Structures are given as structure tokens and as C-alpha cells.
Amino acid sequence: MSTPRPNYGITRIDQVDKKNHGYYVRITHKGQRYQKYFPDKSNGGKAKALRAAKAYRDEILAKLPKDKQDAASRKKRRIKKSGITGVTHVVSKSVKGKNYDYWQAAWVDESNRRKTAKFSIARYGEEKALKMAKKARREGVSGQR
Question: Taking the CB of residue 53, how many other CB atoms lie within 10 A of it?
């Protein structure tokens, strides 16, 4: 098994008012949810609770398919931000395994249907694709499209 990112699937819980401190492990695979809470107090402190949470997480991942294990070990991709609601950067993978990067504009039309427009970064370049997506979103929302 490849080594997962340090805190993959692990969340720190600190609820001072409820005196609730610990680590929560959550992993979902094909609708099956694995979750368990590791409180600091009953595990002998914060460091030991984290170690116990990681051991549980690793035990669960070892039972899952290799592609899920690989996804847990891959560095998280930084998401490019457009600064505009409804304009997002998307990376999709084809059946043959090739990645496609594009900027996508999304809005809801007059008939209350979701509409999207996609602009390839490979075809238009980063700046032009983003500019086109922003324009499509603006026009789509204003009803000109």
C-alpha cells in the first residue's frame, strides 16, 4: 500500500464548550462509510489519539482497492480560482486516461435549467479560456445567451 497523505480522512475536533477533543476518521468508498472517533482523553493525549486515528485509517485503506489507496496518497491538487461565482476550473479524465483542463461557466436559465459552457485551456490558453468563461457566465445570467 502506498503511504497516504499525513491527515487524509482525519479531522481534528475541538469543542471547548462540550469538552470534546479528539480526531475523527471518515472514509467513504462506493457508498460504504467508515468512521470512528478517537478522543484525546481516553487515548492518553492528543499525540496518541492522532496515532490511533492514523492506524485505524491505514487499516481501512489497506482493505480498499488500489485506486482508492493511490488517491489517498496523491498530493491534493490546488484548485484554480476565478473569483467569480459559477466560473470554475475543471480537470476531467478521459476513458483513455488523458487529462483535460478547462474553465467552465454555469448558470440557471429562465426555464430554471442548469446551463454550462466549457472553454479548453489547451485550445484557447489559460487567460483567454478564463475570460471567455467569465463572459459566458455574465451573458448567461443576464439572459442574453
Answer: 23
Cβ atoms within 10 A of the Cβ of 133, count? Answer: 27
Residue-wise pLDDT for 49-100, tens only, equals 999 999 999 999 888 887 776 666 665 556 677 788 889 988 887 778 788 8
Q: In which residue are the cell numbers 496515532 written?
A: 51
DSSP state, 82?
-
Cell 492518553 found at: 44
Q: Residue length, the chain?
A: 145
Query: Is the CB of residue 119 less than 8 Å from the CB of residue 133?
Result: yes
Output the CA angle 132-135-136, nearest 5 degrees. 85
Helices (H) and strands (E) in the chain — how many of each?
5, 6
CB 62 within 8 A of CB 72: no
Distance CA 104, CA 113 (A): 16
Backbone angles phi, psi at 41, to 5 degrees: -60, -50
DSSP string over 47-60: HHHHHHHHHHHHHH
Q: How far apart are CA 60 and CA 104, in angstroms?
A: 35
Helix (H, G, I), strand (E, B) or coil at 9: coil
